[in-house]
């Protein structure tokens, strides 16, 4: 993707052996990049949400292992690095997927060969993420084309999205936003309703910024407006991302996604979830019961940052002093509310058999060996 016309990824390596990232906590008011030089800095970047989004968290963790091995490439150091990084965010399964992949690639090697292999494996993981997201974009583009055909090729296709599942949440392209970028590039008249996505406002700050950089028409709305728009025929389809998807198609996404899915079902609006296969947790069935839901610092809810007319960026408190807060980061949308899942291998029903039809090699793992 591009920032001010320049091709940019969300994470990259520097000649000095550091790892470059976009500090997303400064967006949209400033575009700030950082260099990560240690394992601890990589872990902090994930924990503090300088990087966020399941695929990008996984990529950052992989590079965090590389930074750790620059200091100590022993077996014990590798395990300590993976344990520290694993503990940073509990919900996104890509984190564990990336770290497990690094372990498998590095364990058999002698310490002297691990560092070079770690850099190569992390880079390959990033390139794979880009290819996966481009494929998701192509499959999702078909759904947007179909929506335009249903409208008789008149007016615009209105898509509602929640949180940020664009290139800032991945290495490049994004998941839920990738079809929208391709639609814009193809000349389809697409327009995006962008939920503000409280409490961190990733929609208003990140998704709106991304779409603006790519020239995609969009409108920022309060989180509770989506149902109203659906009632009045102003939403043709919803596309959201997911941080963890169960083997039967339940999806964990930013808090508030479940309510959008309920409104979509009530109004007959297709509700799609875009996901790369590393986001699927094939060991879980019941997402509501089994997916761990992160509870984050209450200050994300009590405090809001913004830019004054003077240009100064400040943080202010919006709740009474002393009022307790509960800051759940995610909720789970049951598969029954999901119209279909958009993966790199195609679009499928949000069911066990739907997923296994695209990923038949997983049948043995899930215990479903039928045809």
From TrEMBL:
Documented EC number(s): 5.3.1.23
InterPro entries recorded: IF-2B-related, IF-M1Pi, IF_2B-like_C, Initiation_fac_2B_a/b/d, M1Pi_N, NagB/RpiA_transferase-like
Origin species: Cystobacter ferrugineus
Reaction catalysis annotation: 5-(methylsulfanyl)-alpha-D-ribose 1-phosphate = 5-(methylsulfanyl)-D-ribulose 1-phosphate
Function statement: Catalyzes the interconversion of methylthioribose-1-phosphate (MTR-1-P) into methylthioribulose-1-phosphate (MTRu-1-P).
Keywords from the named record: Amino-acid biosynthesis, Isomerase, Methionine biosynthesis
GO terms, molecular function: S-methyl-5-thioribose-1-phosphate isomerase activity
Designated name of the protein: Methylthioribose-1-phosphate isomerase
Residues binding substrate, per UniProt: 52-54, 89, 202, 253-254
UniProt family annotation: Belongs to the EIF-2B alpha/beta/delta subunits family. MtnA subfamily.
EC category: isomerase
Keyword match Amino-acid biosynthesis: yes
Pathway of action: Amino-acid biosynthesis; L-methionine biosynthesis via salvage pathway; L-methionine from S-methyl-5-thio-alpha-D-ribose 1-phosphate: step 1/6
Pfam families reported in the protein's UniProt record: IF-2B
Signal peptide: none
Site location (Transition state stabilizer): 163
Keyword Amino-acid biosynthesis (UniProt): yes
Biological process, per Gene Ontology: L-methionine salvage from methylthioadenosine
Active site residues per record: 243
């Amino acid at each position: 993707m591009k920032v001010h016309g320049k091709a940019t990824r969300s994470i990259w390596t520097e000649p000095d052996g550091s790892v470059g990232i976009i500090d997303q906590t400064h967006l949209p008011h400033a575009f700030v990049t950082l260099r990560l030089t240690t394992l601890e800095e990589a872990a902090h970047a994930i924990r503090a949400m300088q990087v966020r989004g399941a695929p990008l968290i996984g990529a950052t963790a992989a590079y965090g292992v590389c930074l750790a091995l620059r200091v100590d490439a022993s077996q014990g150091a590798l395990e300590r690095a993976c344990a520290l990084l694993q503990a940073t965010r509990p919900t996104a399964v890509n984190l564990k997927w990336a770290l497990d992949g690094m372990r498998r690639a590095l364990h058999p090697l002698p310490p002297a060969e691990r560092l070079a292999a770690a850099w190569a494996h992390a880079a390959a993981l990033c390139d794979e993420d880009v290819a996966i997201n481009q494929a998701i974009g192509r499959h999702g583009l078909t759904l947007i084309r179909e929506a335009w055909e249903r409208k008789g090729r008149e007016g615009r296709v209105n898509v509602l999205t929640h949180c940020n599942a664009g290139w800032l949440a991945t290495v490049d392209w994004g998941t839920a936003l990738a079809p929208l970028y391709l639609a814009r590039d193809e000349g389809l008249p697409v327009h995006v309703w962008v939920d503000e996505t409280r409490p961190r406002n990733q929609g208003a700050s990140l998704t709106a910024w991304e779409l603006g950089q790519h020239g995609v028409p969009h409108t920022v709305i309060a989180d509770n407006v989506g149902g109203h728009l659906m009632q009045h025929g102003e939403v043709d389809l919803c596309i959201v991302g997911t941080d963890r998807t169960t083997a039967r198609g339940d999806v964990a996404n930013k808090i508030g996604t479940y309510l959008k899915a309920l409104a979509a079902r009530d109004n007959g609006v297709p509700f799609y979830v875009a996901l790369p296969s590393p986001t699927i947790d094939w060991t879980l069935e019941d997402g509501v019961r089994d997916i761990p839901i992160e509870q984050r610092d209450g200050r994300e809810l009590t405090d809001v940052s913004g830019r004054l007319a003077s240009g100064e960026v400040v943080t202010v408190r919006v709740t009474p002093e002393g009022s307790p807060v509960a800051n759940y980061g995610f909720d789970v949308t049951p598969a029954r509310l999901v119209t279909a899942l958009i993966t790199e291998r195609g679009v499928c029903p949000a069911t066990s058999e739907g997923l296994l039809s695209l990923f038949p090699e997983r049948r043995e793992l899930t215990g479903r060996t039928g045809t």
